[in-house]
């Protein structure tokens, strides 16, 4: 009986730590995807090409010429906001699919991805 209680206590301690580690890993994945989209757009601009909008892994891989693995749980998008401006304006976003609504985004002036949206409580 004591063994069962000890296992239960250990499970109560380990579960929140596992959940936190999982959320941190998801955030790192989203940040990496956002930076990849951002850098691809910056490279297009450096080569004198226009900012291109895209949605989804396959759409962005083809439009931006990048090799991106389809990651379950995230939706990727690049919006060309003002391609007539100099420099051209764009947003790169990575949104968590499902109920938490977490959103990572960068624009042409960003140094680092920013997290927000309805799921901002998961941004850590």
Overview of this protein structure:
With 124 residues, this protein is an alpha+beta fold. The chain has 2 helices and 5 strands, in the order H-E-H-E-E-E-E. The protein has a 5-stranded antiparallel sheet. The longest helix is centred in the first third of the chain and has 45 residues.
Spell out the blueprint of helices and strands.
Blueprint (H helix, E strand, L loop, with lengths): L1 H45 L7 E2 L1 H8 L9 E9 L6 E8 L5 E6 L6 E4 L7
Antiparallel strand pairs: 1-2, 2-3, 3-4, 4-5
Task: Label this structure with key terms.
5-stranded antiparallel sheet, single chain, 43% helix, 124 residues, 2 helices, alpha+beta, 23% strand
Structure in a nutshell:
With 124 residues, the chain is α+β, with helices and mostly antiparallel strands. It has helices at residues 2-46, 57-64, and strands at 54-55, 74-82, 89-96, 102-107, 114-117.
